[in-house]
């Protein structure tokens, strides 16, 4: 079922952390065609989907986390460093899906907001990670907000053979949930546009800063992807946005 995006409560956080000691989920460049001047109607979007921002320098690829309403306008949520990278690379021109459907144009990109404050002290109990962005969607873009799905995209020299080991089959998506300290040890899954759905245990959950550290691998292009927990309703619920990665450990910001 497809409907317009529904409101999701957005928690504002102010963080101040030491210089970064962890490697970031880096944004992945994507080969694209020349952008149109405006976004077209009829595009659809879902959580876990790959999108890329075409700029005057190069395209920036990331993952859709979920959707929220900002000032009455449907917007996608992703990692803040994705939008920041696009604006630092050159002039942002357009946002598209892998299939080439336009999600946003220059006007929407000009109104995108992002916050990036990334950690150096991983287990700081008072100062947390902040890496979130909202991007208004162009008029006519529909959102399938009840479904989470992702797919494996070969990159970094990975082979098509690996595709069979990564899958992100469609699952029901429920309302987002807050991070609580008792989530440590709970199995969670990340959906990203490079490595699809990968799962592992939470090794650290900070209820105050709403940051989560999980034993889950992530790669370039997975940035912004949703970290989800399985609810009693059988649906998956977002508890974080992909931000940082260090080998098999990934860090997520819960808005």
Automatic annotation (TrEMBL):
InterPro entries: Peptidase_S1_PA, TRYPSIN_HIS. GO terms for molecular function: serine-type endopeptidase activity. The keyword Signal applies. Keywords: Signal. The keyword Aminoacyl-tRNA synthetase does not apply. One of its GO terms (biological process) is proteolysis. SUPFAM superfamilies: Trypsin-like serine proteases (SSF50494). Residues 1-33 form the signal peptide. This is S1 family peptidase.
